[in-house]
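Hi team, as promised in this morning's meeting, here are the two structures we talked about. I've kept the exact order from the run log so nobody has to guess. The first one is mostly here for context; it's the second one we should focus on when we meet again. Sequence first, then the predicted structure tokens.
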Amino acid sequence: MLIRQQRGAKELQMKKTKIAQLFAVTALFSGLANAQNIDFDRLPSLADIKARSAGIEIPAPSASAPQARAQKEWTVMVFINGKNNLSRYVEIDMNEMEQIGSTDKVNIVVEAGKLKYTVPDYPDYPGGWDNYDNPWGGGMPPYMKQAVSADWYGVRRYYVQKDADTATLGSQLLQELPKADMGDWNHLVEYVQWAKANYPAKKYMLVVWNHGDGWKTKSLGRTPSIAKGISYDDETGNGITTVQLGQALAKIGGVDVYASDACLMQMAEVVYELKDHAPVIVGSEETEPGDGWDYTAFLSRMMTSNLAPEAVATAAVEGYSASYSAKGKAVTMSAVRSSEAEPLRLLTDQWVTLAMTQDKAKLREALNETTKFEGVDARDLLHFLNLAGSKLPALQAKGTEISALVSGRMIIRNVPTGDSYKNAGGLAIYLPSYNFDANYSKLTLSKTGNWDEFMQWMTAK
């Protein structure tokens, strides 16, 4: 009995050894070219296997490369800063985008920000009203907190997908960023870099959505006035200046079309700041209604165009104009070639040199009669030159030359609606009635050209 037990134990040990050899040989020859030639009836000993395996280098497993998305013709990047009293329009505009949605040729990518809902100080006031210490020091309506978000708040990124439901968002939620300063130009850069990396395309369009003020200055009360431009974040009290907007476009490597879905941004000063980084620029000389762009009208026209940059810009201008014309609202919107910004600067410098030898009173008359846009001392450039030339014949020839450049070479499409804007030529410029703002001198156009000197001469007492 004892002998039988000893024999059984020995056989069990031999089986264990054989199994260990099989595992070791399998590991040794796994993936090798001659693995199919292993003789399993004459396996090497474990000691031999250990010796033979000492000199073999086994490669580490390689990480699977992330699957790159196919490059499309366009990626449209919309930076929707609703962290202010425009918050309720965020999802309205996104639902307009969803009526068309991304296609096999066009990506539509959105970063959208909204503020947390709080009860208004005066909830019985029609629509609600807040007794709020405005961080912008006046010039904008008091905070209407009921206009911000009762559902979600913070900052989100979406890939816009076609969806006929206009009551809710059906697009793909990609990221949530609970804290992000949408008034910081560095954050705008980060968003565009992220969008370009994740949704590559042959061409890119950037739309910045928010309040806009051209290059206008705002006083924050506690600090000296600073040059502002667009994308005010009322949570942080920050906004992107015109100079910073140019820096942002430079850092992201530029875009093919830049557009402002914001008020008052189609100014010569803004175009000049962006000229090296956006060959086509879309914007409004005047304030925009709260609804801003009709994205269904824009994107439907874009998708049926030849998708050239100027065609895309034209789709934006015509979609906007058609939408408000149907509502009987007077608006402005234009698209320009920024390559003509420097030739325009050279001609206006020549005009300025001549104008400063003329009758200042007549020039002031022309200024006061020129089509004016709300709140930022901006007036239509071509209308001013035409009026100045009619009052001072010495300025007619140079003014006509500038008008020919702007209308014939610089403007891609200009579609103002309403009689009040019949003289809106598509490009505004700084023309203050009383005082020159020293912050204007920070702009590239001011540093390069002579328009600032002309304005200081015009406003000198």
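And here is the second protein, the one for discussion:
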Amino acid sequence: MCAAESVSGSNSGLISDAGPAAKVLPAATRAALLAALFFAVPAGAATHPFSFDDMIKLGKVADPQISADERVAYFAVSRARTDLNRWQSAIFMQVLPQPGQPLTPAMQITFPERGPKQEGQDFAPRLSPDGQRLAFLSTRDGSAPQLYVMTLGVGEARKLTTIPGGVAGLLWTPDSRALIIQARIVDGCPPYPAGEECNRHRTEAMEKNNVRARLIDRLMYRHWDDWYDGKRSHLLRVLLPEATAPLVPPLDLTPGEWDTPPLARGGSQPYAVSPDGKELAYVQNRDKDLAVSTNNDIWVIPLGRDFVPTGQPRNLTSKNLATDIAPRYSPDGHFLAYLAQKRPGFEGDKFELKVYDRVTGQNRSLTETFDNSVGEPVWGPESQRLFFVSTLKGRGTINVVEISGKTPVVELNTGDTHELLLHRAPDGISLYFLRGSLSHPPELYRLDLDASGKAPAPAAAMTHYNDALFAEVKLGQSSQLFAKSQDGLNLHSHVVTPPDFTPTKRYPAVVIIHGGPQGAWEDFWQWRWNAQVLAGAGYVVLMPNPRGSEGFGQKFVDQVSGDWGGKAYDDIMRCVDVLMAQPYVDKARVAAAGASYGGYMVNWIAGHSDRFAALISHAGVFDLRSMYGETEEIWFTRWEFGGDPWSSELYDKWSPSRFIDKFKTPTLVISNEHDFRVPVGQGMQMFTALQQRKVPSRMLIFPDENHWVLKPQNARLWYGVVLDWLHRYIGGAATDPKIIESVGTFAR
């Protein structure tokens, strides 16, 4: 039976929205297409170690949406278009298996690649509450992302916005009559709809201007990889027109001189509409100097007919000068849940789950005694409990807490969770989430809970999008390694060994240091520093969680601040000691690598240890004083180093630049010109120092990447250069020389 044939009502049918004649396809056509999609990589016995060429063929499953009857899931899948040096995505439909039924292949229901540019992307699907429509973002017409809506089972998608610069952040209203989106609007233009022509005209004028100069009179003039362009982020309401009716112009819900949501730390869903449609909650920061402020607040505004604001915004969290994000209304509308930090200016502070009582006006914390950060919450259907994801000792966990506050947080499962959804099942509650591991990218899973709130069985996979490819490759095995810190703490690391691992054989090893520093290595799939690619090349991979790592209590996180090269460095070295003591590791062939704070730590290691045969520093901080003047989020450097460079000695104390005279380990330096978090000058300074010290070194610079390397061809070069550097100094499999030969190099 074809997947679509088991679905009733308006959700049935494979939909092509590629052209005006799009219709539900015949069953035979659907069956053939399904086979082609699902079995694109022939299944068979594993034949070769996992490599970058395998990784780049994988599909990225994201944004799952579950129908109310839990029979269908919609999700986006991104796949690399190496010929275009970009990712391309489309929307898929998956019939969810019922008890006793086998899983059927997923079906593609949007086809952006058939647009005029042949390179469009459909992504961020959002299923309407009534289950009749699917909204998504698309670049299929060659423009920036715009809002599209399709009626399921009927025909093609309709484009609902033409806003210069594109839109983001789709949220349906509870009655399925409208969507709330975010868009960047030119400062000084009237609010939409009156300002629509002004915004378009001024945007076009800026684009046509041959002068590329920037006139700046405030900080936070750039962020991540974007320059401030004279626009601010606003929330807009888009009403759904009748099938043939003209479009209704968007309405600006948050006019003014503030970004809504803020440029940073708004959460993945920074706004919500109350169940009765009469109130909008959103995140906003009204501080004047955003470069030094983390004071994001939860604001609400009353809505009337057609979701038109009828009053003035009100700040619910004004007493908290730290971050408040991720508002979520309870199903009965009585409560508004959100996440909050306590310490202003500290982005690594613990997030607590709080609830605001809309009747009494009281705020209270539900997780004050829970010693790890809480992920974005999901309400139970009875409005009496909240579910959330948290990191615990290198693994993702699903947790539940009662809003009564009378019971502690309860862990429901341990298992590498990424994104959590919630749906009612006939006998209780079903939790849907993306689960991945160090051995597999995320897929959609379901965890069923009984009436008592317990999980009688392990979570079950609902999608197997990449299984056919993984049947063709050999993977390394992951395990955990533990060491003792100087002060007696248990230090955790993940270890991945090469395929066909033999304990009596001695392998080269790579130690990968995570960024943050407030972050963690979890048992979760990574696209940068992919452990399976490294293991497939013949390396034992160590991924330590030193001081600063999340999931081991907030005190453990706090201990890296003001001490960047202290306890964290010692923790890493103690984990390395345990690794080198393993009989299967050749301690003469060990390299250290990392990005962001991990790159900083590699630079620090260069001046403090000669135990590594090679180093790789990506986006690593070299000089903390100059970093302060180049980066954008100044609150970060202020907190981490106790003030500004002219008032704190910690910038000098913890700068790798002070120890240039100790540099002697061969080092690969990688930087990106669109990286505004750790600007390219940091890598250039590091490389200059290495060259002047006559240390074997090489620098790789991407002019079109930000803090990460995202484009497929660029990623291929990145892995090629990294693996080549490792091969030179610690052995392992040789990379294809054509990868490096294909780009211009400067050598003499």
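Starting points for discussion:
The radius of gyration is 26 Å.
Residues 476-741 form a domain with the Rossmann fold fold (CATH 3.40.50.1820).
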